[in-house]
Fold:
Amino acid sequence: MLSARGKSGGPTTLRRGLERSRNLVTAHLLDGGIDEDPAKSLDKVCATAVAAKIYSNCIRYYPFVLGAQPVRMIDLAAFYATVANEGVRPQPHAIDSIELNDRAIYAFPDQPPASQIAAIDRASFYQLKTILQGVVARGTARAISSLSPYVAGKTGTTEDAVDGWFVGFTNPPRGGQQHAVFHALRDIYRPLRRWRHSENHDHKLSINC
Structure:
């Protein structure tokens, strides 16, 4: 398997490919990894993305499998919370309460309804959860590997590597709320070390789930 720098890494599993951001591994899902017919593979990927409520509709073209279709951050954060909950999708929210003259005029429910993503089995969500933990433990987010028992997520870059980002979730060791966090940084060379040591981030969206 060739890396972005043209170096061969030999045969690579899907788990290792995702941990190390090897896009070619993901692209091969369309070429026999899901179905022998790439068009049918794409249909299944699109259907899964819509069922998981990442998108309301899928723009059907092959780069979709690499995340080429824009996504709302709140939907992405909700999906990561679903992975953390192994298939149970909570209702994401950014506002806990609104007060006017010391009186609460809005409060998000303490126990919001959650729904099971029926189109994807729980075992698959568990596998994806451990893969995202592997990204932190030994993959592209290994700069914060000491947090891998509690943090999972995925790194990435925008076109021409202008921006770097990390999106993931925390997994409280004793239960409690799952938190899905989208975090974008312009310093693509040291994004995760800055994320670990500093609270002053360029962009941060924290969704309580």
